[in-house]
Amino acid sequence: MGLFDNTLIVYTTDHGEPFGDHGIIRKCRPWLYQELVHIPFIIKHPEIAHSKRISALIETPDLMPTILDFLGIEGPKEMHGRSLLPLMAGEVDKIRDYAYIGIYNRSWAIKDYEWSYMFWFEDKVYHENKPPELYNLKDDPTEQNNLIDKEPGIAKDLDLKLRKFVADLEDRVVVY
What's the rounded Cα separation, in Å, for the pair 68 and 61? Predict the structure, then answer.
């Protein structure tokens, strides 16, 4: 029937799987380390070359606009995500400078091509107050060496960007 030749196929997951990294087994707390948030995102587009690895930052909210774009449907203007099709077609090198990750009222993170900054809310379940963390992903891709005290300027800059992003999201919330 030729369905494979005109079908967009997407494979992804909702989270990674830590196997002892950072002392974590399974997804038990609101951790935002690479082993939990770096997930597979594989797309087979019927008209774009196959077997191409793209290292640009993307987010799971990019899935919906990508599918809508493929179908030729314009999405709501309030969408946070962006279509990945221009990235996949080689029309652009990136669609964003930062990836934002969060677990509602538990933890937030901002990651770029070099840095990973994590902010933790007070954990009411475990009664912990975990301080923010900062990692250089180029030198430390598994986020083992917290540089928060050595790079306070970078941490402050990323913290402000993260808070602005969250505030902008709150401003865009649409209640139906």
Answer: 12
Q: pLDDT tens digits for 91-114?
A: 999 999 999 998 877 889 999 999
Q: Residue 121, Cα to own-chain centre: how many angstroms?
A: 19
* Domain boundaries 4-172, corresponding CATH code: 3.40.720.10
Backbone phi and psi for residue 44, each to the nearest 5 degrees, phi listed first: -110, 110
Residue type present at position 167: A
In DSSP notation, 132-145 reads PEEEETTT-TT--S
Q: Give the single-character DSSP code of 128.
A: B
* Single-letter code of the amino acid located at 32: L
Residue type (1 letter), 168: D
Nearest to residue 110, comparing CAs of 128, 133, 78?
133
